[in-house]
Amino acid sequence: MTLDWTIPKGTVVLVTGGTGFIGAHCIQVLLENGFRVKAAVRSKTKGEQLVKSFNKYESALTFGIIEDVSDYYSLVRLAEGCSGILHLASPYTYAVKDFAKELLDPALKGTQTVMEAAAAHKSIKRVVITSSFAAVFDATKGLQPNVVLTEEDFSPLTYEDGVNASDPAVAYRASKIVGERAAWDFISQRKPSFDISVLCPPMVYGPLATTELLSSLDNLNFSNLTIWKMATSGSATPVPPTKGPVYVDVRDLAFAHFRALVVPEAANQRFMVSAGDYSNQQICDDLRDNLSTSRAKHVPIGTPYQNTEPEHFTTDSSKAIEILGVTFRPIKDSVLDLVNQLYSYIE
Hints:
It comes from Ogataea polymorpha. By secondary structure, this protein is α/β, with parallel strands linked by helices. The protein has a single domain, classed as Rossmann fold, CATH 3.40.50.
């Protein structure tokens, strides 16, 4: 029932990271459900491209320019008149040299600034934080066969661990838990008039909400670029090992964001949003079985229908299913829709 929604239909929701892979899908779901959206973007060009992508919604989507999401005064101005915030903007790159400056500080200060900006406006009732499976998983424990990970699990990494990390992957994982903990600390210490909801997705796959924002395939988000490169690498190419063996479709994740924003029971709750296990061999099998012949011939054959991956942890998203009403697409739908979309883009 929309009458019970925490955020009233027709009101304005601020979305940080709105031009990103997940953010654009979140904007689409919000618009489809009768909300107005204000996207925080880094440039006028990006903002205009975003608005053009959703032009059928006319004036329901606007944008404001903010080069740095940790810019408090700019973010406060953008948040004025909003009823909720989806905070997705956070660095995701391993091509870094200064872990603190390029990963940890943007994640930490970005979240802190979003929380402060929300506190500056009594109209804001909820902030949804996009965290990560990286904030759940303790990589020092290995693959943990027979272990079921849920939203009750937290990475033990600290800011100092990230700064002193031996490689960017550890620093990135630290940035996610540090950013998330900043939100929980704000709630417990400041007790603001708004509440939060935190989502922890694993690898995110699926088609783009729009190709309008895609300048070239080289600029695809990391997870989808990995799929595209594998799907076009050639039949004799070995199937690469699966590095992140749990996934969620971007469309299901976007729906989870929407529901986390409006469902009263999501207040100050954390959710694992994972569809379950997959392997790269399974993806290749699905693509070869379902793509057209001209496209399927470029997909690695590997060892068809055999799972040669080591045993690993599983995930339990029953809380998200029960409270948010999320359902999960199979990995086949995610990768097929993506690969066919990208072939159409280049042809």
